[in-house]
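Troubleshooting log. The previous structure file for this entry was overwritten by mistake, so regenerating from the original sequence record. Sequence copied from the archived sheet and checked twice against the printout by T.R.
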Amino acid sequence: MRLVLVILVAVQALPLRAPDPITAQFDFAPRTAIESRLRDSSSSNTEREGILKQMFEASGCKPPALTEQRVERETLPNIICTLAGARPAVIIVGAHFDHVRVGQGIVDNWSGASLLPALYGGLHNSPRKHSFVFIGFTDEERGLVGSRYYAAHLTAQQRARIRAMVNLDSLGLGPTKVFLGHSDKALFEKFELVARRMKLPAEVVNVRGADEDSEWFKKLGIPTLMLHSVTPPLWRILHSPRDTLAAMDMAAYYDSYRLLGAYLAYLDDKLQ
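Regenerated output below.
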């Protein structure tokens, strides 16, 4: 997550809603596998890009489904894994893999990037209505460079097919949070419903003074959902020497993975 000036958070409780059956299938990986991928990081952004590609391939996403998008005037590309569905409609799931020089960048944002292959792996064994596009964005910390380039090079036809963009940034400091100020109301309501049905914690935390990769999609009129884990006592961990594996709440992180998996499967089944 790229921090700008002062951060102010506002937390609100989720309103009660009647439960709705969630029948869509997602193959959950064990907690040990999710934690292993989180630990398989590097202080080098170049190495992180290579590790992410290896994780996608190990999850079953190989060329031509796995591609690189070269970004002009940047060293590292966007990493893109596509899971074809029965319909042309698309759901994008994104997370940046780069980090600042201070700290190890485990929270911000290897926590998001290393979940992308796991989420692909949980979805690809069952037929899907939507096509899913998982994107590891490059150079988010230098001004949302990778996501800006990707969004700017979408054709009008491609933009029209995108039904949702879910962005993962700085997970695992605690329970899952929704940046509602950067999120579509309808996508948020579906996320809330799944969280209640799964009996997993989720709340709204709006972060003032921060920007993240969903912004370029929101500017195109694409519905977005921004997920994180930042709270007032914890936000100073980002971009600091404290951003290490020790900062992670592993149980909360695995809960976020489970919630995300169920949510993506639910979106695929229910999203019009």
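DSSP finds nine helices and eleven strands in the chain. Archived copy saved in two places this time.
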